[in-house]
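INFO  loader      accepted 1 record
INFO  loader      residues=798
INFO  predictor   begin
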Amino acid sequence: MRINSVRTRIVLFFVALLALVQGAAFWFVNAANTHNAQTKVEEELVVGQKVFASLLEQNAGKLSQAARVLASDFPFREAVATHDKGTIVSVLTNHGARIGADAMLFIGLDGRVIADTLAADAPPHAFEYPELLEAHAAGTQAAQPNTGLQILEGKPLQLVAVPVMAPLQIGWVVMGFTVDNSLALELRRLTSLEVSFFLHDRQRGWQPLASTLGATGLEELHDALPPWSRLADTHVIRIGQEDNQVRLIPLSLRGDTRIVAVLHRSLSSALAAFERLRNTLTALALLSLLISVVASVAIALNITRPLSSLAVVAGKIEQGDYTDTVVIERADEIGVLASSLKHMRKGIKEREQRILKLAYQDTLTDLANRSKFSERLESAIVAAAAAKKPLSILVMDLDRFKYVNDTLGHGVGDHVLREVAQRLLKIVGSAECVARLGGDEFAVLLQAPDRTEAEISRQIIETLEQPILYQGQPLDVGTSIGIAHYPRHGHDAETLGRNADIAMYVAKRNKTGYAIYDPNYDTTQQEHLSLLGELRRAVERNELRLHYQPKVSLRSENVSAVEALLRWEHPQRGVISPALFIPFAEHTGYIKVLTRWVLQEAIRQCGAWVREDLRLQVSVNLSARDLMNRELPDTIATMLSEAGVPATLLCLEITESGFMEDPTHAQKVLDRLSALGLKLSIDDYGTGYSSLSYIMKLPVQELKIDQSFIRNMVGNEDISTIVRSTIELGHNLGLKVVAEGVEDAAAWQMLQTLGCDDAQGYYMSRPLPALALVDWVRRHEVPGPASESAAAVLGRSS
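INFO  predictor   done
INFO  writer      dumping tokens
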């Protein structure tokens, strides 16, 4: 089993818990047994001490009785009376031999030793232990003997002193038993204790006298005995490999010399009685541990087996395999978990299917989405590289979808996208990958087409040029397609997609329908990006200029208005046309900065002309992004106030397409601008797809006909009819009509005939700097009503 598995941890927990409980119980029982054994040994030592004291008393009684018998012996008393030392020694020796005494002494009343069996030839001398001798009153009965353990002639002896009466006391008889191994063995026989006798001297320390131990044990006991200053009744000392409980019994004390009896008992032998209980507890502990292991394993299996099954199912779910079902029927929490996992598996499977569909399929058209297309393209590139075969991708964008979507609503736009998807599938077929990349952008992967990419592109263009019907209303969208080939135009999916996208924008800009990627397109794009980066610095470096093109009245031929046109005087590139940088400024949002600069400069210049008594209305073009700026009216009002320019001298020109991006919001901004007193003009009229109903709602005062119509109206009856209709429409709506792009006298004269109000173009004047414009206006101003022909105007403009 793995250490970190739940099963192992359950088993280890129960076994460890039981082992801990049993260990604690065993420790307490063992401690109690040890305490009981120590108590028992202590009791035995106390009993042994009493037995030892009783034995000493018994020996003392035996000696006392023998001494009385000797004291009543007449020959002994006669020898004492006659001071016959030889006889006294002989009697003492014989009597001592009869009773087993090891020492016999006769001591006179003066306390001097007269006869001594230990030193028969020794002269009389003072008795070493006079405290054993007691004086008895004359005429009394024999008193109790005095006893004690003393050292006599270098031997430890139990001495008994008995007075000798004849009838008066004539001396003392002192008898003694040697304290030797025999005495120790006798005491061990009576008490089952080990007995040792030691002499303790302050200078020489402990000296063994007798013992029941062997030489080694006696030596270890001698080394383990504490100093006399730390002596206590009971000690635990180690003798050999066992702990012994020792009781010290002082037997005599004379100066610095002591005789001590040492009673001791091995604790191990005392604990032997408890060994059976300990063995029984150990056996029970082992048996309970075994049962605990078996029970823990059973419990763990009951818990972990279903968990393991659930873990296997969960692992397969993690790997995306939802085929295994959870078959665990239990009424406990594991059963609830199994049921929850079963429902979770089903829910995850359904959600993953939905997520995969969302991740790789466009929900609106059911085509592949951008992620799926990128994945398919990468796989196709790998296969094409292995097979050394080319492949192509087509990226397309619907040309007029935004107007359909914004004008008719997103529901109609969704219908158009679905119809486009179906048409693409019919043309390309399901063998290739058709994807909607987002918005109105589609892509097609061609791995082994039976037609060329150009043929397929033309067929797609032709198919999408057919109107899409929605509730009987035809909708015209059209498309532009960019084509990129592998490996010529890129070796990876990202590069191919980017290059096809670039080609698509080239086709859209050039209105060619489709375009195959060319590396030169990248150079153009890089130049545009470079220009955009430099344009951000052009405002700061004061490289921008405004030129003004006059608007000439077709009736009076006077100039009352001009149009401000932006020019960029690049220090290295020279004058750059707005057509090269304005579209990119609009795409990046930088157009707001340019518009603010143009407005401020045009209003400033208008103010300067007003102060010179030259009232010229200045027209400024606004982009679609400008109409989304809610702060624009307030900004213009502030600029007019600071420059001292009447609001009527500023005209803002807006395109139909700019208004149609968000008509509701644009309407609000235009209403606020009109409320300030500004003039509003619809620029490039005729190129957009707006409804007349929107134009009628706009607060505009002027309508400008796009130059594409003016340049081609002479000699083209259809276009001239459009221009005539537009002029009439403008007048019927109460609008002033301005024609832009007038480049010759024929156009000038036709516009006069059609009743157009104003005109601007190269025929009258190119856009001029502010100072040159003032000179031009001064030189060509007509003082009265129109009295000159168009030819005269043309002559003045030269």
